[in-house]
Amino acid sequence: MSNKKALICTIGDEILIGQIHDTNSRWLSEELTLLGFEVRERVTIQDRKKAILGVLGWGFQEFDLIIMTGGLGPTKDDITKNTIAEFFGEKLVENKDVLAAVTRIFEKYNRPLLEVNKLQAHIPESCIPLQNKWGTAPGMLFEKKGKMLISLPGVPYEMKNLMSSQGFDRIRNFFHTGTIVFKTVKTVGIGESFLMEKIKDWEEALPSNIKLAYLPSAGEVKLRLTAQGTNTDSLEKEIEIQIDALKKVASKYIYGRGKISLSKAIGQMLQERGETLSTAESCTGGMIAHLITSESGSSAYFPGSIVSYSNEAKMDLLGVKKESLEKYGAVSEQVVGEMAIGACKKFNSSYAIATSGIAGPDGGTEEKPVGTIWIAVSNGKEVETKLLNYQRERLLNIELTAKSALNLLRIWLSK
Amino acid sequence: MSNKKALICTIGDEILIGQIHDTNSRWLSEELTLLGFEVRERVTIQDRKKAILGVLGWGFQEFDLIIMTGGLGPTKDDITKNTIAEFFGEKLVENKDVLAAVTRIFEKYNRPLLEVNKLQAHIPESCIPLQNKWGTAPGMLFEKKGKMLISLPGVPYEMKNLMSSQGFDRIRNFFHTGTIVFKTVKTVGIGESFLMEKIKDWEEALPSNIKLAYLPSAGEVKLRLTAQGTNTDSLEKEIEIQIDALKKVASKYIYGRGKISLSKAIGQMLQERGETLSTAESCTGGMIAHLITSESGSSAYFPGSIVSYSNEAKMDLLGVKKESLEKYGAVSEQVVGEMAIGACKKFNSSYAIATSGIAGPDGGTEEKPVGTIWIAVSNGKEVETKLLNYQRERLLNIELTAKSALNLLRIWLSK
């Protein structure tokens, strides 16, 4: 197909005054591009009737698909719904399915259903509601003369769920979009530019219907391969052939496929081996435990963590020697190793990860500047350590350290 | 002044396909808002002549200030400059100052000055160039019949430097800008609609030059008051009067002002009292410790946490009684209380927060469904507990529990 044109419109003062990032626009841009749409424009407007009418008028002239987010909540400044009804010259009518869904949400949380909430079940006559299990405002979809308008709540979590569960399917059916298949490969332990260098030859040899995107995040790079064509099965196979070839040049950085997280990948390795993991965290302050326990089922391989922020906790709870703290300091290879061994013992776990460092912005010295961080992995006897040197913002230092420490264990388990 | 209206236009396919965040728009939104402009719209377009002409035509009709970023580099697809010249019906002429600046940049990096780079010194006749010490493309400023257009390179670092060094000064002088003051109040422990109900009378009595916005996030609602006028000091005072009135109706939910986090606010309370806090976390899995240690300086009041995911860890490390686990189960008022008392002892801390619950999606029973969560606060002797019931996704359940547990301590400390 020649590309259909899409317009993304986000509504909200908090975006226009710069208080929040417009993450909805970016997510929709990515997803619609993958579906084969050309996102020609994005626009952000105020929650004002005239602005919304302006976008609808111009949008239906110039574009095939318009997606609006924001301005659907129960508060009085949310006027998107009424304006859309006015634009189409339609009345608002109560929709029984939507009312039932709103009622269920309030029952679930044991809260009284206020009049203002009941109004959320009133939608324009020609509207196809998208059922919202994640909030109280329905998504609203309109099909008009070969074009489509979708209006969604602005809360990113609700918006994404509404599109993923119902919106994209309706778009695919309505526009008969061609087939696009994409698969992602997740890497850790190598920066974007180094990875690009490493897989350059492979990338250049990709067939023309397969595109590659680098999607970096803290400590990781996700590779997304997108194949365009007509037949899903053959596209799947084509991509798999390329991923096999990729593995030959970058296998040691690849930890998984799809949406798996690094901590989940490690959890699977541990479960296969019938082994367990604990953590002893100083500078990461519980972040590694949080990443591990964010995964459902982690209690099968994770007995727990000791966050030892003070030296007393390092000694009393992890058995770090007083002499080691005095001689080497808390941020040292010696102490981080003792922390890891101590955690193995305390939790009786197969392995432990430990961290100790200066996350910043304060606490650095000439000898050990902010960003000096020791990490360790132990099986209770042997210890493997690594010195890191991150000089970013505090939270990023913490996150990068957590990823590096998990990766140190992954490499150990892969040997 | 009544607010001058601004339009921000970013140009670039990498934004429209979702490859990068549009950080330029957000930064400009914040800065222009602080200068007293009303950023009425933001738009992102492709690097196409027709799209740029469209924005210029409509922009000069509707707005006082237009800022464009992107499409000024030396590559062939950067057509913004030529399109602006065409829009004004002007020729491009070589500007000696700009040529000198471009030449300096190339000398500095020891690179040959190519013909294509010399072209960067060609600018429309009426253009006031903004000297770029950070790259090769000048910023271009135009003053036309009381309105202003500024076109800037898309590289964030260059764009920000050009605005900060020259752009904002020229805007201030040209528009004799008025003043906007905004302040935020942070609340926790009450949902958006209930808070609205609670402060309805106060909101309705706000003077017309002060506007209120509700900005909800997990477990919290931020209130933003924006005042418009001419004098910063008197606007500050006007807002403070309203915030004092707000405190009379909603004080128990307010934990701070500005950008402070809940964990930081609690940290400040603890530091003022010279007291300390530890955590004993089961279902939150280290999230509370992570929130606390995300704040620089937290080691002054936070010795650490025991993440006791297994029953053994609850008994061995926190002193939870075996009989309590057998009689009441791990998710019980009894056990979460013993966890809190145990953490106070182990860390010798003034207070401890404890959590135990079923975060989901698995692990629920008929008696204790997913979302059943007990939280506790203790000072080592007394214990206060609360039963929560969240039925969201695992990560949201964890985050809401962490916020509720921190809030339970905040309320204790506020008594």
Give a quick summary of the entry.
The structure is a homodimer of 415-residue chains. With 415 residues, the first copy, chain A, is of the alpha/beta class. In chain A, 43% of the residues lie in helices and 25% in strands.
Note the topology.
The structure is a homodimer of 415-residue chains.
Chain A: E1 5-11, H1 13-16, H2 23-34, E2 38-45, H3 49-62, E3 65-69, H4 80-88, E4 92-94, H5 96-108, H6 115-118, E5 122-124, E6 128-130, E7 139-144, E8 147-152, H7 156-175, E9 179-188, H8 192-198, H9 200-204, E10 210-217, E11 220-229, H10 232-250, E12 254-257, H11 262-273, E13 277-281, H12 287-293, E14 304-308, H13 311-318, H14 322-328, H15 333-347, E15 351-357, E16 372-378, E17 383-389, H16 394-414
Parallel strand pairs in A: 1-2, 1-3, 3-8, 13-14, 13-15
Antiparallel strand pairs in A: 4-5, 6-7, 7-8, 9-11, 9-12, 10-11, 15-16, 16-17
Description:
- The structure is a homodimer of 415-residue chains.
- Chain A is an alpha/beta fold and 415 residues long.
- Chain A folds into three domains: 5-175, 3-Layer(aba) Sandwich (Molybdenum Cofactor Biosythetic Enzyme, Chain A); 179-257, Alpha-Beta Plaits (2-Layer Sandwich); 262-414, CinA-like (Maf protein, Alpha-Beta Complex), CATH 3.90.950.
- Helices cover 43% and strands 25% of the residues of chain A.
- Chain A has 16 helices and 17 strands.
- Chain A has helices spanning 13-16, 23-34, 49-62, 80-88, 96-108, 115-118, 156-175, 192-198, 200-204, 232-250, 262-273, 287-293, 311-318, 322-328, 333-347, 394-414; strands at residues 5-11, 38-45, 65-69, 92-94, 122-124, 128-130, 139-144, 147-152, 179-188, 210-217, 220-229, 254-257, 277-281, 304-308, 351-357, 372-378, 383-389.
- In chain A, the strands form four sheets. The first copy, chain A, has a six-stranded mixed sheet, with helices on both faces. In chain A, strands 14-13-15-16-17 form a five-stranded mixed sheet, with helices on both faces. In chain A, strands 10-11-9-12 form a four-stranded antiparallel sheet.
- In chain A, helix 3 crosses helix 4 (80-88) and helix 11 packs parallel to helix 16 (394-414).
- The radius of gyration of chain A is 26 Å and the shape is globular.
- The model of chain A has no long low-confidence stretch (mean pLDDT 93).
